[in-house]
Structure formats: C-alpha cells, structure tokens
Design a protein that fits this description.
The complex is a heterodimer of chains A (554) and B (92). Chain A is α/β, with parallel strands linked by helices and 554 residues long. In chain A, 35% of the residues lie in helices and 18% in strands. Chain B has a 4-stranded antiparallel sheet. Classes of the chains: A alpha/beta (554), B alpha+beta (92).
Chain lengths: 554, 92
C-alpha cells in the first residue's frame, strides 16, 4: 500500500471506474447515494439520468451488449435498489457483464428498518453472479476492482456493490499498489478433443448449434471459419443470431419454439450436434427427451455447470471457445446432407405474400432489415414482435441483436436501445417493440428527449398482449383473459409529447416510404405500425412437444 | 401416488470466510432442487477458511449441485463423500 492524496469513498469510486475505462453510467439519484452523486459532479464520467432504475439497469445491459464491455448503473437504497433487480436478473440470465452500485443507509442504521432501507445484499443473491456490501472503507477499492473482474471473468454476469452512505463519505488514505484481486478459480478438466474429432469424422449428418456464448467469447470469426471450412449446416439460438453469417448457404436459421421448419427438422434428424456456447434451453429443445434423439453431442462451453445439465454429452470441451474450436476444424464429406437441407430451406422459405391491405408484421420487419444501414443494432422487447424480428431480420453480428433471451423481460427494448446508442453513437439503433412491452418502460422516452438520443422505435401495434393472446387462443380454448389493449394511448401523440417525431401507418402501401423516412431522420423517431390483432407467430412448437411436431397455422 | 427416489449425499465444502457465503450455498442448494437434511459449519480463524459439511437429498444427480456451488466466487472446493450416499423413497 502506498500513501496518496485523501479521497472519499465516493471520489474513489469514480477513480476506479475510470481505471476500468468506464465513460458512461446510467442511474437515478436518491438519499443514500447522494455522496456519490456529489462526487459525480466533479467527475469526467458521463451520467445518463434515466427515469426509472429499471431503465438504468437495462440501459447498462444494452450498453454492455452493444459494445462488448461492462455496463454500469447506479441506484439509491430501498426502492431504487429493488428497481434494479429485474435488470440484474435479466443480465444474469443472459450472462451480461454489469456492475451495479447501490447506496445503502449508513452502517449504524443498517438492520434498524431505517427509511429506504432494504437488504439489497440479501436480495441480490439470486439475481447476480456475485455481490458485495462494503462495511470497511479500506475494502472499497479492492471490492470495486473485484466487481469488474468477476463481471468479465469466465461466464459473464452482473455484480452488485452496495455501499453504505458513511462509507461513501469516509476518507481513503491508502490506495492499492498493484491490482491483483481475483484468485484464478478456473480449473477446467482436459478437453475431449480426440474423442470429439473421432465423433466428427464419423458423422454423416452433423449440425452446428450456435448460442449466445459465441459472441461473448468474441469467437464469431472462429465459428464462421469453422462453419465455412467444415461446411457443417448450422442453426442458431435466439441469442446466437448474428454469429453465423446469414448468407452462409448451410445456415438454416433459428431453432426451437419459433424456429424455422428446416432448422428444427435438421436437428431432429442429425447424428451429431456440435454445441458452441449454448445451453439446451427449454425454448430451444421443446420436449427434452425427444430433442435430437439420434445425436451424439460435442459441447463447447466456458461454464462447467452447463455440461450434462440438461443433455448428456459425449465430448465436453471446456474453456475458451476462440482457442478450442479451431482444433476441431476438419474436412467433412457431407454433401448429401448439405444438399438435402439446402433444398429444404428453399422449399420452406419464408413467404411475405400476405393477402389483403393490412400490414404483415414479418414483411415490415424484413423491409426494415433490408433498408437499414450495415452494422445497425436492433433491440427488441418480448412477445410476438420479438419472434418476428428474430425470424425475419438479418444480423451480421450478435452485438447487433439485443433481446432479452433467458429472462424474457418486457420493457427491455427501449432502455437497452438507449444504452446501445450511447455506446455506439455512429451506428443506427432501432428498438423493435410491441404495444404491450413499450408501456413497461415508456418513461424512458424522456431520457431520449433529454439527451436527444437518435434511437428509432418500430412499434408493432396489435392492441393486444399478442403472444399471450395467441396462447390463449391455441391452448386455453380462446378464453381471452386480460390481453386486450384496445385502450392504448395515442402513441404518436405520446411520442410527440416527448418531442419525438412519430408516424402511424396502417396499410401495406405505406410501409416502404415510412421506413425510409424513419431511417433518414436524424433524431429519434417512433414508427407505429398497426397490424391485425389476430396475427400469430408461426411456426410454433407447442409446449412439451418434439420440435418436428410444430404447428404451422390454424 | 408416485414413489420418488431421493438420493442422499454428504458434501464437504471449503470456502473463504466471506460475507453471506453460507446464505449463497443455501440459496443455490434450494434453487437447484436439493433438500438440506443437516449441516455443520466451522471456520479456521488462522486461515479464514470455512469448512461446511452438508447432507442433502434429491432425485437429481449430485453433480448438478456440485457444479453450481463450485461456481460461487468464494468457494474453494466441493467434495462429495460417496461413502455416505444412500437412497430413500418418498411418496408424492
């Protein structure tokens, strides 16, 4: 330890943030975090005032995902801290590196049911990768460094640091000499490389199953190279979209509940699944016992706990995907399999020749996808529009498609787009939302207004909670319970109230011009797209059903 | 009623003596579908290492729990004492 100038805990926080390259944070002030906001006043870190702590957490998630870095958010004690929880849970489910700083009542008041006191440390256990509560000023610097290291080490995740007000105000007289805080816990078993190579060379119908771990491992190039050199047909999870070049002739699209018919049939028929950064999520597998029933499995992952968690594997290759996957690259003799699946992709290609004048949501999203500039970042909320975006838009990198995969959190899209746009000011950012989802964090339109953030919003409006309505129609005898949103506000007027340019379209003939107008507009823009409320997302694998028994319409 | 076979295991967990490490272990154990039948925790004040001995039961394989506890930041290691593994049947 060396002597240094006297700092407070709050000013030390900003020094550490800057040591970790943090330029932007998202937050909302309050009583127990006032010393930190006072120190912010003198800091070079740029703070974005969100209008709800959940918005701040999702903006931090969007920032992290779009830029491949750590997102940071602040909240005060009590309700401020609890409002972060959904965002942290979302970050945990999708393995996103976020550091959340919460103010806490002074240590002397802790445990006394003080005003705005909640045990956020206890509440954080189930929704963070790790958490700290700092009760000794001499621990603060080390803890803050550890928070960043843990967020990024191995499988990424959110870390919460709870700092009581007296610790924020306490004098720091000593700084750490050298940063070496985290023990190296990574003790991975030897990889089954030779076994995997043997499985691969004997496979006649292999499939590459690509998940969100690819983007987080910064291994997009390696996975694309592997797919190209082996010629292996590939499928993607929701969170893996963008990892495989969508123009690869052997890429079959998304698998799972709303996956393509070809992807699901191919997986069901394959004799080998090469799984990269994916976890056999229930939305992917359908009925687990009948998922890829004839396949051997090679599983690449950074997280030991994902191996054999839901599906027994034949070869496990743990650790850095970027270094490990090239070890398996080999020439495969699978031309019959490739041709069969290419033909199937042609036979089962999406169709956009929807009858009538009503706007067909898949077609409008394809139009946006076709017209948007390269490297556009798309965020979504959750529901039908999310699945249509996944099915009908093309992404050239996983960091260009930000969607709440594991948690499925409505309200994600708008604040995540704000975070993405802050991290990538020169790229177009479009939030694809629904009329149900956008109301979950609609207050963030005020954040867009305040900072003139040029986010575009494509609002797919069916005046319903569409996905729930679809399930009620299909699986609950059409008993529509609390899914009608026909009393929505006037979204154009609402956006206009936040000085955001907005337009409503209701007919197919209006789509092209409206999308172009939105994309050409320099500032924020909301395009409300009115669609038929009876439209469903197809195909659909019903619950507890094998993926090749999908419904394609009713 | 279906008979469910619960396998009983004894875990020996070594952990840094950090805040809420015990709560973290308990939370993970419950969430991952294991019943806690008994536990004992002691701290070596010389090296600040806690040794937690825990008996758990579940129909799920113990490796699922071991891997999840091992992921906790403050955990140094988890061992399964196979000598104490037993089966018991419950009606559900």
């Amino acid at each position: 330890m060396t002597e240094s100038k006297t700092l407070t805990g709050s000013s030390l926080l900003f020094e550490v943030l800057q040591e970790h390259g943090v330029q932007h944070v998202f937050g909302y002030p309050g009583g127990a975090i006032m010393p930190i906001y006072d120190a912010l006043y003198d800091s070079d870190v740029k703070h974005f005032l969100c209008r709800h702590e959940q918005g701040a957490a999702f903006s931090a998630v969007g920032y992290a995902r779009a830029a491949g870095t750590v997102g940071v958010c602040f909240a005060t004690s009590g309700p401020g801290a609890t409002n972060l929880i959904t965002g942290l849970a979302d970050a945990l489910a999708d393995s996103i590196p976020v550091v959340a700083i919460t103010g806490q009542v002074p240590t002397a008041a802790m445990g006394s049911d003080a005003f705005q006191e909640i045990d956020i440390f206890g509440l954080s256990l189930a929704c963070t990768k790790h958490s700290f509560q700092v009760t000794d000023i001499n621990e603060l610097e080390k803890v803050l460094h550890q928070a960043f290291e843990i967020a990024l080490e191995g499988r990424h995740g959110p870390v919460l640091v709870d700092i009581p007000k007296d610790i924020q105000l306490a004098a720091v007289t000593q700084r750490l000499d050298k940063l070496s805080h985290l023990k190296n816990k990574v003790k991975l078993p030897l990889a089954d490389i030779s076994k995997a190579l043997d499985l691969l060379t004997h496979a006649k119908q292999p499939i590459l199953y690509v998940g969100g771990g690819v983007g987080m491992a910064n291994a997009v190039e390696e996975v694309r190279d592997f797919a190209e050199k082996t010629g292996m047909p590939s499928v993607s999870t929701l969170k893996g979209l963008g990892a495989i070049n969508p123009d690869n002739e052997n890429y079959l699209g998304m698998l799972g509940m709303h996956g393509t018919k070809t992807a699901n049939i191919a997986v069901q028929q394959c004799d080998l699944l090469v799984v990269v950064g994916a976890r056999f999520d229930d939305r992917v597998t359908g009925k687990l016992d009948e998922f890829a029933p004839n396949a051997k499995v090679i599983h690449f992952d950074i997280d030991t706990a994902e191996i054999n968690k839901r599906r027994a594997v034949d070869a496990a290759i743990l650790g850095d995907l970027k270094g490990n996957l090239p070890l398996l690259t080999t020439d495969l003799k699978i031309s019959d399999w490739q041709q069969k699946l290419q033909q199937m992709s042609t036979d089962f290609a999406w169709r956009y020749d929807h009858p009538g004048e009503n706007i067909f949501a898949p077609a409008v999203l394809k139009t946006v996808s076709d017209l948007m500039p390269s490297n556009t970042c798309i965020t979504t909320d959750v529901g039908q529009h999310q699945m249509w975006a996944a099915q009908h838009m093309s992404f050239d990198d996983p960091s260009n498609f930000l969607t709440s995969g594991g948690m499925g959190t409505m309200g994600f899209g708008l604040p995540a787009a704000i975070g993405a746009q802050i991290s990538r000011p020169h790229d177009t950012v479009i939030a694809v939302s629904g009329d149900g989802s956008i109301m979950m964090n609609v207050q963030e339109l005020a954040t867009i207004k305040r900072y003139q953030i040029p986010v575009k919003v494509v609002l797919i409006d069916n005046a319903k909670l569409g996905m729930v309505r679809q399930w009620q129609d299909l699986f609950f005898d059409g008993r529509l319970s609390e899914t009608d949103l026909s009393d929505n506000p006037d979204f154009v007027m609402l956006a206009t109230a936040f000085e955001i340019k907005a337009k409503l379209i209701t007919k197919k003939s209006e789509v092209d011009a409206a999308v172009k107008e939105m994309l050409d507009h320099d500032g924020p823009y909301l395009l409300q797209v009115k669609i038929d409320s009876a439209e469903n997302v197809w195909p659909l694998v019903p619950p507890n059903t094998a993926n090749d028994k999908m419904m394609e319409g009713v | 009623m279906n008979a469910i076979t619960l396998n009983k295991y004894q875990l020996i967990i070594m952990a840094d003596d950090k805040q809420v490490v015990l709560e973290r272990i308990l939370q993970v154990t419950r969430y991952r579908g294991f019943l806690i039948n008994g536990m004992n925790a002691e701290v070596n004040t010389g090296n600040n290492i806690a040794t937690i001995t825990m008996t758990v039961s579940s129909e799920r394989p113990i490796s699922l729990l071991v891997d999840q506890i091992n992921k906790l930041i403050d955990i140094k290691g988890v061992e399964v004492d196979n000598s104490s593994a037993t089966n018991q049947q419950h009606s559900a």
